[in-house]
UniProtKB/TrEMBL annotation:
This is DNA polymerase III. GO terms for biological process: DNA-templated DNA replication. It comes from Candidatus Avitreponema avistercoris. SUPFAM superfamilies: P-loop containing nucleoside triphosphate hydrolases. Pfam families: DNA_pol3_delta2 (PF13177). It comes from the Bacteria.
């Protein structure tokens, strides 16, 4: 069991607890991004549901076969997460293979269903909410049915057509319908589903990025944890354990996932995606290749944003104190020393979609500020400006990931806050 979770010591502890019958009904997988938390959660669901009892990846019991395709009616995923990068990476791996192996077909199916499971009709708290993505979901299900390893592989032309159509539909689904914070109505709706007897041995609800839940959703979920239904396993994940509601933490057992080493990340790229990683390439770096905006272009947008902020504040009383930032700007390539407006940045960033594009932009801006903060002899005025800028970046990220603000709206606010900080 857990054979496809590469180099994660916490899995050994989890396996021991499973075999000893010590697994509690509610667990938390905490650790950095790309440490295998969701993979382990999905594997736990499969192992708990295995009809043969062995839980090995090669098990061919009906339950394990459904779980391999993420097609079990007893497992759902709740929580915001961008899946498009992984879907595109899996598609590239599938289409580059000749012939396409069952392992790569599973990889693609699972990547897409990590997204579609967040739109299960169970979550819909109104007929209108269920109807909006229905046509896209129906098309995706048709494509995935034909790509299933349970059937002979389509010929190369048909495979390419199905895969490309599934990728396009996945992009539409994520960009147009994926929430950035769990609606409280979803939590209330899933509460009723959890109390219905499972089709198999157990129902599993995976709640990703638990720390991003707003108060109403967290409180509604806490009520479920306080009186958990029978035959239900809760698996929560977080990248920031300290941000999870203390009363939720008190009701779960934590399994700490560690950051993978550079060698382990390269192994994930080789074994899972059947790709040859560049020396020192991280999983994040590999997946970022499949963003609609290239990381280098995002970095230039970040530099142009800072350049434009300083130019616009040219008559500000604090501008003379911004020598450190000016020193960093002077080293920019010519393309980065051109003014750009917030709407132009939003357009260049594909409106900040998928979310990793927006996250990379904010991270790039923060990186440039940190470079300036390392300049010698910072003045108190500069230190205060940089402090306010870093706080504004945190607010912009929280606004999109917790309060469902669009990146475009957050960018307008960020621009105003940066300029105000310079003006004093």
């Amino acid at each position: 069991m857990f054979e496809n979770v590469i180099d994660q010591p916490s899995v050994a502890v989890l396996t021991a607890d499973l075999r000893a019958g010590r697994l509690p009904p509610s667990v938390l997988f905490s650790g950095p991004a790309y440490s295998g938390k969701l993979t382990a959660a999905l594997e736990l669901a499969r192992v708990l549901s295995c009809e043969a009892g062995s839980g090995g990846w090669s098990c061919t019991c009906p339950s394990c076969l459904r779980h391999k395709e993420l097609a079990s009616p007893d497992t759902l995923i709740l929580g915001a997460r961008s899946c498009v990068q992984e879907i595109r990476a899996a598609a590239a791996s599938l289409l580059s293979a000749d012939p396409p192996s069952p392992a790569l077909r599973y990889l693609f199916l699972r990547a897409v269903r990590k997204l579609t499971l967040r739109f299960h009709p169970v979550f819909a708290d109104s007929p209108e909410r269920a109807a909006k993505p229905a046509s896209v979901l129906a098309s995706l299900n048709e494509y995935l049915e034909e790509l299933s390893p349970a059937y002979p592989a389509p010929d190369s032309d048909r495979l390419a057509k199905l895969t490309e159509a599934a990728v396009d539909a996945s992009v539409r689904l994520e960009e147009n319908f994926l929430y950035s914070s769990v609606p409280v109505g979803f939590v209330r709706s899933v509460s009723s589903w959890l109390r219905i007897k499972p089709a198999g041995k157990v129902k599993v609800l995976i709640v990703e990025n638990t720390e991003t839940m707003q108060d109403a959703a967290r409180n509604a979920f806490l009520k479920i944890l306080e009186e958990p239904p029978e035959s239900v396993q809760f698996v929560l994940t977080t990248v920031q354990k300290s941000a999870v509601m203390p009363t939720i933490l008190s009701r779960v057992r934590n399994y700490s996932f560690s950051a993978r080493s550079a060698a382990s990340q390269e192994e994930v790229i080789r074994r899972i995606f059947r790709a040859a990683p560049a020396p020192g390439q991280t999983i994040a770096g590999f997946l970022n290749q499949f963003l609609p905006v290239k990381p280098d272009s995002i970095a230039i947008c970040a530099r142009r944003f800072l350049f434009s902020v300083l130019c616009a504040a040219g008559r500000g009383k604090r501008l003379s104190a911004m020598q450190a930032m000016g020193g960093v700007l002077s080293a920019y390539e010519p393309a980065a020393r051109e003014k750009i407006s917030p709407p132009e940045i939003a357009a260049a960033l594909n409106k900040g979609k998928p979310l990793p594009v927006w996250r990379l932009f904010l991270s790039s801006v923060a990186g440039e500020i940190r470079l300036a903060m390392r300049q010698p002899a910072l003045s108190p005025e500069e230190t205060e400006v940089f402090r306010r800028w870093m706080q504004a970046l945190k607010t912009a990220f929280t606004g999109t990931t917790v309060f469902n603000l669009s990146p475009a709206a957050s960018l307008e606010r960020l621009d105003a806050e940066f300029r105000a900080a310079i003006q004093g």
